[in-house]
Amino acid sequence: MTTNMEYIQNGDYLIPNFVLPTEETKSLGKYAMLRKSYLKKHRKGLYSCMLMQGTLYGHLYKIDEEAHIFIDRYVKEMAIKESVDETLKAKDQMAWVQAMNNIRSRAEEIVLYELIYGDGTV
């Protein structure tokens, strides 16, 4: 079996000359950073494979975008379902803040469990 791999001489050793594919990199959001940290720490093989194939940052951007979309949609839906609206906000602002924070916390918990520390799908 022959490969077209290039090697570099380093003392008495030949070391494969790996060149990682370049990916467009921009700043990562909160959920992308959490996913990257999780993959790096707990799914080392998948992390290395994605890094070598040049698909890691695309995956991270997708996760971050999906997380934000899910949270926004969930918060809107649950606020309507639980009658957390402008009427409540005008009547009892602290109750409105408490209810919205509760809804947002539930949404974030789902995102963390499913997207970040799960298989990456909600």
What does this structure look like?
With 122 residues, the chain is mostly helical. A hairpin with a 2-residue loop joins strand 1 and strand 2. The protein starts with 6 loop residues before the first strand and ends in a 6-residue tail after the last helix. It has 5 helices and 2 strands; from the N terminus they run E-E-H-H-H-H-H. The mean pLDDT is 89. Helix 1 crosses helix 2 and helix 3 packs antiparallel against helix 5.
Number of strands: 2
The profile of the biggest β sheet is: 2 strands, antiparallel
* Overall outline: rod-shaped
Q: In sequence order, what are the helices and strands, one letter per element?
A: EEHHHHH
Question: Which segments are poorly predicted (pLDDT under 50) over 5 or more consecutive residues?
Answer: none
Task: Give the proportion of residues in helices.
Answer: 55-70%
Q: Tally the helices.
A: 5
Tell me the span between the first and last alpha carbons. Answer: 43 Å
Strand content: 5-15%
Alpha-beta classification: mainly alpha
Give the strand order, joined by hyphens, for the main sheet.
1-2
Mean pLDDT: 89
- Which value, in Å, is the CA radius of gyration? 22 Å
